[in-house]
């Protein structure tokens, strides 16, 4: 059977003989790799892996990446001690160098979150509220629209009141329209207590709760392997850089420009798990 995708891949892609030496000498270690086209000032793609060689070779077996491979003229890599360093470096490079084929991890300086105040769920912004230290924040969204859609989805699933949540105006002492449709449990007309309404809302949002920065200031996350050590310097979820000595780590004194959604997501897991990495307080 004719397969147009396979035919297109065959037309666009031939084994890159000019990359053979590079591919054969890629390390089987953690790190970041960078695909370049004709202009090395603008990368095509940046990725990370615990095994650079294996991950890069997998690109050359993927028909969906024919266009990327057709444009690639060179591949560089940066080794890291472990996975945390690779994740942080990949995120930082993508934000700063904006490669053509990366669709995620782009720099988003203004984020939204859902904040609870009484029964009301409001949308707040990271340039107005300190996301690193504010309680009762749920979810990190790129737009106000996506945050509001999340509130509506939860309200529909849990039969919460749009009026009580602040999504629509509610007439005094009257049930909302959704109550008559069986889509609201009735906090608007006394059929449900405010406490029960709030508890169901919080339970539904619990997995989205934004964790506060758990340290007084800057920290260094330590990764070690084969007698080599790296210190990843973090301040209020913002990645400042990686150095080889603790003395150099202490020199980082950069004001945090904004709340970094990607660093937050990368660091929550290792910092809050029982087998969390070694952390050194720098402040």
Automatic annotation (TrEMBL):
One of its GO terms (molecular function) is hydrolase activity. Residues 28-103 form the GIY-YIG domain. InterPro entries: GIY-YIG_endonuc, GIY-YIG_endonuc_sf, GIY-YIG_UvrC_Cho, UvrABC_protein_C. The keyword Transferase does not apply. Keywords: DNA damage, DNA excision, DNA repair, Excision nuclease, Hydrolase, SOS response. This is Excinuclease cho. It comes from Rahnella laticis. The gene is cho.
């Amino acid at each position: 059977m004719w397969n147009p995708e396979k035919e297109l891949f065959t037309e666009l892609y031939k084994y890159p003989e000019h990359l053979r030496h590079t591919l054969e000498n890629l390390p089987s270690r953690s790190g970041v790799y960078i695909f370049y086209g004709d202009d090395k000032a603008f990368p095509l793609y940046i990725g990370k892996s615990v095994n650079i060689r294996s991950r890069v070779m997998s690109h050359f077996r993927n028909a969906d990446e024919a266009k990327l491979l057709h444009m690639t003229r060179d591949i560089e890599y940066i080794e890291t001690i472990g996975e945390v360093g690779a994740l942080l470096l990949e995120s930082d490079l993508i934000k700063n160098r904006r490669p053509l084929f990366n669709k995620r991890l782009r720099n988003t300086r203004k984020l939204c979150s859902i904040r609870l105040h009484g029964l009301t769920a409001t949308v707040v912004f990271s340039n107005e509220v300190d996301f690193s230290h504010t309680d009762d924040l749920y979810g990190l969204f790129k737009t106000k629209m996506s945050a509001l859609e999340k509130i509506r989805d939860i309200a529909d699933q849990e039969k919460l009141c749009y009026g009580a949540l602040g999504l629509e105006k509610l007439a005094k002492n009257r049930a909302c329209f959704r109550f008559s449709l069986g889509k609201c449990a009735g906090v608007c007309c006394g059929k449900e207590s405010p406490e029960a309404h709030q508890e169901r809302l919080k339970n539904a949002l619990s997995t989205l709760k934004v964790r506060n920065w758990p340290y007084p200031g800057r920290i260094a996350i330590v990764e070690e392997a084969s007698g080599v050590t790296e210190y990843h310097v973090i301040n209020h979820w913002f990645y400042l850089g990686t150095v080889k000595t603790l003395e150099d780590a202490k020199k980082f004194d950069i004001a945090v420009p904004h709340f970094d959604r990607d660093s937050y997501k990368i660091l929550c897991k290792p910092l809050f798990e029982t087998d969390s990495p070694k952390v050194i307080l720098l402040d």
